[in-house]
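1st attempt posting a full record on here, be nice pls
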Amino acid sequence: MNVLSTVSEVFPLIKTGGLADVAGALPKALRSHGILVSTLVPGYRAVLEHLPRRSPVARLDGLLGHDAVLSRAEADGLDLLVLEIPELYDRPGGPYLDGEGRDHPDNWLRFAAFSLAGARLALGEVLAVRADIVHVHDWQTALVPVYLRYAFRSSLPVVCTVHNLAFQGQFSFDIAGRLGLPDAAFGIECLEYYGGVGFLKGGLLSSDVVTTVSPTYAREILSPELGMGLDGVLQTRRSALYGIVNGIDSDIWNPASDPLVPRRYDARSLPRRQANRAAMLSHFGLGDAGGPLFAALTRLAWQKGADMIPDAAEEVVQHGGQFVVCGQGDAAIEDALRDCARRHPDRVAVHIGYSEELAHLIVSGCDVLVQPSRFEPCGLTQLYAMRYGAIPLVGRTGGLSETIIDANEAAMARAVATGFQFHPIEPHSFREAVRRACEAFEDREAWASLQRQAMKADFSWDRSAFQYAQLFEALQAAWQATAGLLPAEPEQIPSGWTGP
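the predicted structure (as tokens):
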């Protein structure tokens, strides 16, 4: 089976968050199931620099007023297709934001043209690209099924994965006439959204199946509280909505072989981890106070609960611990964290920004990694933390609630705990969880046992890839049996699924 994955970022070429990690790991995990994935990615400047030996394979003209060169390359075991339109993608800044941290004003055009290219490739315009199934991710590629259904009248099966419903690609209705779609696509049953154009809404309604990145999040987004205005739309797709927990690339994230950490170790050699703790403290200019070393490795945003971190850091300091924060985002949160670091220069350090090397150092060196997210579709950082023996402290929501077993008295007694959860997700509960973690850290033998239990948790892609493979196979079989019917709601989904 051949799957065309259209995605706006993919590790190791370009990354702003967990989407890139998933897009980089899932294709490799699917290979053992006989599924070959080609990944289409925009030709951002960083992508072109990473792939100097790419080979042009075709020219695609007429992409909403732009012409493109399609190149092919291989990197890190991925079969990559690069859509090169220099005026849209080869520019300063990131994939979505310019150098000043503002949205590129033509994002609607950049990702509409990318989606149109994905649809045309899926339909076989370029003989070198084959697709039995199309896999789209988030709003940036959600127009692929819309183009397939409305512009080309194709029933080719499409799976739409929502990594974060908070980002929907909503634009003014003024762009409607420039998308190259028939009028029927702009009705309430597709793209129309409160008088504007909703890319993700159209993708949700035009795809055969909608998946999201944990069963809990699949249930949560059906509610007005976490449906982000699309809960009604998702209720209409409830029978085709499934949650599959993300995995991690256990080759890249492996403390026993990680080239980015000062000292490699495993669950049987935990004392070696102290060298990484020392290196982390040194990197951030802190001496070792002897207490627990907390860390946050996160986007500094309200969704991530980052506004509560300064208050939690005060609690850590009161209990003799230290706190390191690495991330960027909301300017007010950044300022509050800097103020906290100025008040406690020996206990709190803040790095505004992100690097893959620093992320590996932090998860290999900190004792506790906090994720106080108010909502979290899946979360990958807590999975990396457990793999490295850093104990997660998380808000009880979405994928965080599914992947962490709270270190309550019963779970500790049975030696099954893997971290700390708190709820409700507000400052008082967060601080209480911090106190629990600090008290647990005092018993170093029990803490080491907690670390080893966390490191035993298996969050490789094996099980999740198996579920995706089952889904793709069921869709292909349904499409082959009923070719020409729109849309193709699968009536039989394989056993082992957890849906709403």
